[in-house]
Design brief:
The protein has 693 residues and is an all-beta fold. Helices cover 1% and strands 48% of the residues. It has a domain at 598-691: Macroglobulin (MG2) domain (Immunoglobulin-like).
């Protein structure tokens, strides 16, 4: 016997150990963009610190990017600082990292740093300061060791050194809720300097230019001090009020990165002018000569070569988007992202294009196809419809809620939308009109929806609810469901599977009772499912991707090559499994590396179609089935119970002429008589077998 290469079918008879050992995930070429918290420039090198995707490097002015993350995988980088050949990255929860080779490799430098939630850095020579949620730390040896803590009750969001760079002269610290502090004795004592700030004491950014000190706040715009913080004056004329996350000074220019775009002041903040990226959440700004860069929260990096008069997205290779939803149909693969909208790939992820025309909310939580129409649910409580593969979108929400649309499900002409706060809504006319359908549902925080025949299931933060009348009435169905925070639901051949904060549960009786099915499942927070036949795939937020070929009776991790194991979405095509990750884009893996395939026999070609009796028979729980094809045909091999219900699909594939064997593991199914039926071209044959446990 030999394997058929190029065949990717879903069957149920275990994983091939050699395949697992060699299997690898490959990052697709997108979607591009992401959450950029920080930017830093050193010579011709531009660095971007991202949310959970680490650091990216561009050596050509942002034209292209490459990940610079060895030793820094999955790090949420909140600040970057450069001194000579030393590049420092401040991370949220992992402390400070040092690279001496432009990000090629990183080393943690946290000795003495007792708080590793670091949001700010300031540097001059070998003097490095780190602002954490528990105060300020000092290193005088490039991070080899740290001393502190100062301002122990303060959450530090910004740091700035006095112009001469001497920590012994002046160091300023901006805090989350206590305003600005200054020290002139290396942190031995600190003095609050908030006169004139009033209630605007939530500081997000600081910048120094000559004798001027600027502070960006969360809600009060920008303040200026010309006396080292002894007093402050609001300087926000022309600045649309919002959070000012970043300040950068270049000569006589001051740039502000705010929650509603980039602003420029040529008179030290006395007046401001919006210079683009309107309604874009800008978290970082940096300039090099006449080129200005803006790092955004969800849309990656933008570049301007004319001081902000015009901007161009500069995201090629910057794969740092959080993918919350995936959907596939024919050759089209769609990815819904948090902050970047919807992306389309027509070539298996080799390239992606944004398809957001008409989409006013770019945080997409859910996607579903229904009769060739694609629907998208977004963060601000809206549902959008596209009838042209995402080329254009129409807002079809007619209910009054701002709760995120976290789940969508379709059944014939009915479309259901589950919201995280306002329950379930029903539309029977493709979104033209919606009605709330929540009677009997005691939790309106709906995270997942699934349909099986006339049953509609809703997964909530209080378990699973069942409706048998299109949502008119609901009943809690949680017996045996020991973890009631339900994030994912899917219907498989064995029944209904629920992905929870405590693993996977299976119900074979429409939710009347549940059984945990999580042997081998080391990632217990299950956020997504994909299924075909009896093969079940689970994406978790704490352990990556797992596969079960026996209806959840056992699981195997399939994470080789997947550096980001926070998996929010899964989908399958005829050849590949795609995983949408938190802030690392979409990853692809051939199904042939995960699931085994039907195996042909060598020898003479058979003369007729045939289906042999399974062996052994009776069996417990695995049996082998052999069949023959005298010519090429599209064949299906399915298993049914005595009620005529399909319980497994072993083969659904175009096969060449030959004799084949495959196996079936009945897993948790009960003892009894089952029927296996082979259908191909004009041939149908059915036989009976006995499962005896």
């Amino acid at each position: 016997m030999k394997n058929i290469f190029g065949m990717f079918i879903f069957v149920m008879f275990g994983l091939a150990s050699t395949t697992l050992a060699l299997a690898q995930w490959i990052q697709t070429n997108g979607p591009e963009g992401g959450f950029v918290h920080s930017l830093a420039i050193s010579g011709t090198n531009l660095f971007a610190g991202t949310d959970r995707a680490g650091v990216f490097l561009s050596s050509n002015g942002g034209m292209t990017w490459t990940a610079a993350n060895s030793g820094l995988a999955n790090a949420d980088v909140r600040a970057l600082a450069i001194s000579g050949t030393n590049l420092f990255a401040a991370t949220f929860g992992y402390g400070v990292f040092l690279s001496t080779d432009n990000g090629t490799s990183w080393t943690a430098v946290n000795t003495g740093l007792t708080n590793t939630v670091v949001r700010a850095l300031a540097i001059s020579g070998d003097t490095l300061l780190a602002g954490t949620e528990g105060g300020v730390f000092l290193s005088t040896n490039s991070g080899a060791s740290w001393s502190g803590v100062w301002l122990t009750n303060a959450d530090i969001r910004a740091l700035a050194m006095s112009p001469n760079g001497s920590v012994g002269t002046k160091l300023f610290a901006g805090t989350f809720a206590n305003g600005v502090y200054v020290t002139t004795n290396k942190g031995a004592t600190w003095t609050p300097i908030n006169t004139g700030l009033g209630s605007d004491i939530m500081i997000r950014s600081l910048a120094i230019s000559d004798t001027s000190l600027l502070a960006g706040t969360y809600s009060g715009g920008v303040y200026l001090s010309s006396n080292s913080g002894a007093s402050w004056t609001a300087v926000s004329k022309g600045l649309i009020m919002g959070a000012v996350y970043a300040l950068a000074v270049t000569g006589t220019y001051v740039f502000a990165g705010a929650s509603n775009g980039v602003f420029l002041s040529t008179n030290m903040g006395l007046t401001w002018t919006g210079i683009g990226l309107t309604n874009t959440d800008v978290r970082a700004v940096a300039s090099s000569g006449s080129t200005l860069f803006a790092g955004t929260y969800g849309e990656g990096v933008f570049r301007s070569t004319n001081s902000g008069l015009s901007w161009t997205a500069a995201n090629m290779g910057l794969r740092a988007l959080s993918v919350w939803s995936l959907a596939s149909s024919s050759a089209n693969l769609f990815a819904g992202t948090l902050g970047g909208g919807i992306f389309l790939s027509t070539n298996n992820g080799t390239s992606w294009s944004a398809v957001n025309y008409g989409l006013t909310d770019n945080s997409v939580w859910s996607l579903v196809f229904n009769a060739g129409t694609l629907f998208a649910g977004t963060n601000n409580g809206r549902v959008y419809r596209s009838t042209d593969n995402g080329t254009s979108w129409t807002d079809i929400r007619t209910w009054l809620t701002m709760s995120p649309v976290s789940a969508l499900a379709a059944a014939d002409t009915n479309l259901f939308a589950g919201t995280d706060g306002d329950g379930v809504f029903l539309s029977s006319n493709s979104g033209g009109l919606w009605t709330g359908v929540n009677t009997g549902m005691t939790s309106t925080s709906v995270r997942a929806l699934a349909v099986r025949n006339t049953n509609l299931f809703a997964g909530t933060n209080s378990g699973v609810f069942l409706s048998t009348n299109n949502g008119t009435g609901w009943t809690a169905v949680n017996t045996g469901l020991t973890s009631t925070s339900v994030h994912a639901l899917i219907v498989g051949d064995a029944g209904l599977f629920a992905g929870t904060g405590g693993g996977v549960f299976l119900s074979t009786n429409s939710g009347a009772s549940w059984t945990p099915v999580k042997t081998g499942l080391t990632g217990m927070s299950v956020r997504s499912f994909a299924v075909q036949g009896t093969n079940l795939i689970a994406g978790t937020s704490d352990g990556g991707v797992f596969v079960s070929t026996n209806n959840g009776a056992s699981w195997t991790a399939v994470n080789a090559g997947l550096p980001n194991t926070l998996v929010a979405a899964l989908t399958v095509t005829s050849t590949s499994l795609f995983a949408g990750t938190y802030n690392s884009g979409v990853w692809r893996r051939p199904l042939s590396e995960i699931l085994t395939s039907v195996t042909p026999h060598l020898g003479e070609l058979p003369a007729v179609f045939s289906l042999e009796q399974n062996y052994p028979n009776p069996f417990n729980p695995t049996t082998t089935i052999q069949f023959s094809l005298p010519r090429a045909a599209y064949v299906t091999l399915r298993i049914f119970n005595t009620l005529g219900e399909r319980v497994a699909t072993l083969v659904s594939q175009e096969l060449a002429a030959g004799t084949y064997t495959t196996s079936w593991n009945a897993g948790p199914l009960p003892s009894g008589i089952y029927f296996y039926s082979l259908r191909g071209a004009d041939f149908i044959k059915t036989r009976a077998m006995i499962l005896l446990k």
